[in-house]
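Continuing the batch. This is chain 6 of the set; chains 1 through 5 are on the previous pages. Same settings as before, nothing changed between runs. Recording input and output for traceability.
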Amino acid sequence: MEKHKKKRAKHPSRLGKWMMLLPAGCALFYPLYLANQLDLVKETYHNPSLPSPFSGLSIAYVSDIHHGHFFSDERLDMLVNRVNALEADLILLGGDYGEDSAGALAFWQKKPAFQAKIATLAIFGNHDRTLPEENFLPIQNAMKAAGVIPLVNDAYLLEKEGHTLAIAGADDYYNGFPDLEKLAHLTKGASFTIFLPHSPDMLPDTYQLPGGPFYQLALCGHTHGGQVALFGYAPKTSSDYGNRYRSGWYREHGVDLMVSNGVGTSMLPVRLGVRPQFHLITLCSE
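Output for chain 6:
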């Protein structure tokens, strides 16, 4: 798949940096206060097509950390500790680790100690695929050094009692080179597939594949829930589809989609009507 409209990294604005001088712990500055909260969302995902050997498998999903001016080392340590405390079977990281590719490299060079029972898998977001492109391979190597498996147009296969669960990770939709046909081939024999695109904007392209979507469940980030949403509507989103994939669960073309609000922010360190979140999803075949 060719690159779509390239998206530049949205670096912290001068106003955003100034706002970080305000007391984020004070509820009087509510949008700043809310952005510094962190909600765990626990959910059970039911799908009768899931093979019973994988029923009960737990997945911790975290997206859009944006470590840097608005997401400190202390918050990162707290996030990693809270994720590890879930004792999830799999940890899936949905991209945008720093403010740009240099920030993403610095993030992974810190070797954040995510600990899953089976494996921790990570994809790239649009901020991770900004210039210089020379950071692309070093970021993957730094992921591996941190005990994390990078998925760039690749799939991780988990086998149990004759069944296969596939986790398919695509390169970034905007700044990378996603290969959906390759992912469809890699997961062809899987009993159940979870798709990890950073942006939900990639999903309509999967509907146009010759065999339709190759997955049953997609977990996405990128939108931040709009960061600011009034009565469930965001005046501005990072998705080309506006509010279609703003936040939450959807069902399209026979597959289920979850779009996370993510944990970090960009441009401004504020949220309103959209709480930062990470997830613990338990799979259930009933």
